[in-house]
# Entry
Amino acid sequence: MKIYTIKDIARKAGVSVTTVSRVLNKRPDVNQATREKVERVMAECHFVGNANARGLKQPDGDLIAIILRGRDNPFLNALAEAMLQHTQGLDASFLMEFVDEQADEFQTALRLSHEKRVKGFIFVGGRIDERAKVLDGMDSPMVFTTISAENTSFSHAASVFIDDRAMGYQAMKTLIDAGHTRIAIFGGIRQGDDGFAKRYTGAMDALAEACIPFDDERFVQTRFSLRGAYDTARSFFESKPDTTAVFAMSDTIAFGVIRALQDMGKSVPADVSVVGFDGIEMSKFFIPRLTTVEQPVDDIARESVQVLMDMLERGEEPRHIIVDAKLQIRESVQ
Amino acid sequence: MKIYTIKDIARKAGVSVTTVSRVLNKRPDVNQATREKVERVMAECHFVGNANARGLKQPDGDLIAIILRGRDNPFLNALAEAMLQHTQGLDASFLMEFVDEQADEFQTALRLSHEKRVKGFIFVGGRIDERAKVLDGMDSPMVFTTISAENTSFSHAASVFIDDRAMGYQAMKTLIDAGHTRIAIFGGIRQGDDGFAKRYTGAMDALAEACIPFDDERFVQTRFSLRGAYDTARSFFESKPDTTAVFAMSDTIAFGVIRALQDMGKSVPADVSVVGFDGIEMSKFFIPRLTTVEQPVDDIARESVQVLMDMLERGEEPRHIIVDAKLQIRESVQ
DNA sequence: TTACTGGTTGAAAACGTTACCAGCCTGTAC
DNA sequence: GTACAGGCTGGTAACGTTTTCAACCAGTAA
# Structure
């Protein structure tokens, strides 16, 4: 089927392309009758402008990309969703881009910056490493979320995050206060993300403070998926059956662990206590309800958008913002 | 920072823009020395072509859009993800587009077809109604998933779906066979999607076959979210406490219902049995594991891509493909 | 010598749109 | 009458690419 261009519309309506363009862009300086005629023709032809041509001609206006790594991560998805909410009414356009686990998000960003003239970036679930230099060198403002860019050499990188160390401390403290001493930590190390390391450090601090020795074999690395956590937990508890509590570095891991425990005849929290991290929606509905560190999704989203706009529109310096997380006491710890 | 164009590169490298374009597109007819020189300059400048200009000039190649409605729906997300897997190695480019609940996905599709010259569409979580005419009128091949387009007037609409009636029947039959007679159905009616209606019909058939009367008040409409199902279930069970089984039309609804029952002091499956629908990952990990109708995500994805490619490349007629779903017996029914 | 080949290259015309500028009217003020 | 403003309109030059065509320069065959 024919795809109509602005020229076709102009011919059919008996006006110039300029006039059609004016109607298309809702400019005021068009006669009402002319406008209606053109609009009628456009409607008949199901006309939609060609974005390439438009973008080519007017590469202006602040275009901002939200780059989400991890489509199947409920927490990051909720965060990106919240971000989209906070972009409403702002004097900028936003686009959401997904990259998968293996991809280089900075190359994606670089591509967007050239291809679509994207001006600013918000990374959701991203990592920080040297590769960010390519963006920083271009003076592109960027915001990292749930991860600190404070002590990096980048001059255009802001960040919004929680105090992972403090929350790791609190999570562990909760377990200690409940009387546990043989506590496992389920998590992992992600290149370019020291959040997990900080949670680990916080947890260690709590342990040290209570003079509880930590058996390194109780730090177990796992994939961040239900299946991964389940499998890891099954083999872990076979070798360390006397463990009575688990600090899981994500809610998803916590669910996998709980399911595994259940299948091994141990119930949560009666036999083993579990505390999670993130506070995704399911944590309120899972059985048992999960005691977890709830990340302030809405605050992170709001601040991220805010700090980026400040950099972009007012040339402000990048800030590094710590927002308050909160430990939600629910049912999985006893 | 300066954004380099092909002209800048040409000037810096002392060649023509044509040559740069050739290098950019890896054409064979460029002298090796010239190619290397141009590539070096491009690397120095972090050059990436402008997608708008390129798209404007070469709107060719089969571009296919996967339009996903419902970012927070785990089942639809898994389906879209699987689709992406099956596009590997195909002679076409795919792009994934999200539309939110309120948006008109056909307008989105129309826009994509004009803006990016998208040739074919796969709708994930879409609805079928008259608005699809705009695409059908343009001869754009489209595939609807998890929903039948069989008895529509569209000549370019294929579809891939399960036998919702049969699966609704099986789900209900499972409950009946377990001895239940006071069974509630939690679901809803979605405009343009008769899948739920078919599941309902199937369930009714099973009831009729077993000569069990159905109390219309036990058909309860709910939002398709944990929270929505939870709230609905709480008020429902207050008015109909003697209900002993629930057929939930999605796993998410099932989880909300189970949580609500738990909070009302009823356990699943001891007091109330629940069967879900979709078979998302969490259904294997929830406590109790959910007995549910598992949609063959991989089959739906593969067939959808296949039938669209057949229409696009070989001009074949749209087909309407029924794939086999399977009732997964797990722990939530007794 | 001429003719022709193949490997490289560049000039210029698109692609569909918007921005700028100039030009037409009609009406109003001098 | 002239001048000028304001509303409306159209012609044309961009935007950054790719594509088409022509042309160059060896080298080789006749």
Q: What stands out?
A: The radius of gyration of chain B is 26 Å. Residues 15-19, 22, 29-31, 34, 53, 55-59 of chain B lie near DNA strand C (CB under 10 Å from a C1').
